[in-house]
Automatic annotation (TrEMBL):
Gene Ontology, cellular component aspect: nucleus
InterPro entries xref list: REX4_DEDDh_dom, REXO1/3/4-like, Ribonucl_H, RNaseH-like_sf, RNaseH_sf, Znf_C2H2_type
Coiled-coil portions: none
Residue stretches making up the C2H2-type domain: 15-44
UniProt xrefs under Gene3D superfamilies: Ribonuclease H-like superfamily/Ribonuclease H
Record's keyword annotation contains Transport: no
GO biological process: rRNA processing
GO molecular function terms attached to this record: 3'-5' exonuclease activity; nucleic acid binding; zinc ion binding
PANTHER family to which the protein is assigned, alphabetical: RNA EXONUCLEASE 4, RNA EXONUCLEASE REXO1 / RECO3 FAMILY MEMBER-RELATED
Species name: Brassica oleracea
Keywords: Exonuclease, Hydrolase, Metal-binding, Nuclease, Nucleus, Zinc, Zinc-finger
Family: Belongs to the REXO4 family.
Cellular compartment(s): Nucleus
Name under which the protein is recorded: RNA exonuclease 4
Amino acid sequence: MDCRSSMESSETLRNKCAACYKQFNKFEHLVEHMKISYHSGHEPMCGVCKKHCRSFESLREHLIGPLPKQECKNIFSFRGCRFCLMILETPNARRIHQERCQFSSVNAGLTTRMAALGVRDKAMIDYTSSRSPKVVALSCKMVGGGSDGSLDLCARVCITDESDNVVFHTYVKPPMPVTNYRYEKTGIRPENLRDAMPLKHAQRKIQEFLCNGEPMWKIRPRGGKGRILVGHGLDHDLDRLQLEYPSSMIRDTAKYPPLMKTSKLSNSLKYLTQAYLGYDVHVGIQDPYEDCVATMRLYTRMRYQKHKIEAYPLAADAHNRSNQVAWRQNEFERMSPDEMLSISRSDYYCWCLDSLA
């Protein structure tokens, strides 16, 4: 009886995913799961049981959700940071870490700060400086056009660097009449747009700044001059600016898999800032500077995640594609779940790779 139980236990472990711990009835089902799951060391991971999660939302549910793993929940309640979800050595280490992990709001005194910086209309960009930033955040605020005011028109744009400094800020004159200024959210009045920078002019300045003297076709994340662009819902902002930029250079907090909902839908910037940075945004009139700072902080937090360095980290890399073509069922059958995990690669670009550039 003991021998039989031992054999069943061994078979159970062999059919269990080494990443997400999902149990399968047959080993071939585990193999198929590993082929499509794209588990990797870049996924958020529980600091207690080492379970891989597809997103930080999934990890949060695992730790403190309605049906958490009880052992992990108990340890997290004493030693876990509620912002970055890291497990610390002691409750005191957790307290010190969490104080540093929580950011303060930039909303208090925002207008005063921006006025002191002289950026109520900072329409000049110095993109020739040797200290010019490699990573910048962009945010736009929209007013309404069309007969019912529902058409988004860019009326204000802000760009900041990694130190929360304003690189560019201006009101933008839309190419068509404004029928709804949406003042309660934007704080924009007709007088702000009367002598504002034309959209085409703003577009040209921003494009030149982002490309940094490099042709669009030549821009790449590593070794090039182009700047990495951070934001939330950048597809929409760039569309309203009528501006194109290579997707390989865009870091969008609305589309980054670890920051998305378990349903694979986007989280709002308001939620992400509250959950992962520890303060509130979009309280009253919304300022694009506030959005730039929040998205840059989220990006920075994701960028400095500590993950294993791999020569070919993406499943889409040519090296990994050729390996996958060569994989055969009988080859997998000789592998343990841990060995399969060791050759599995991510299906998204992890922002930690930017720190290696």
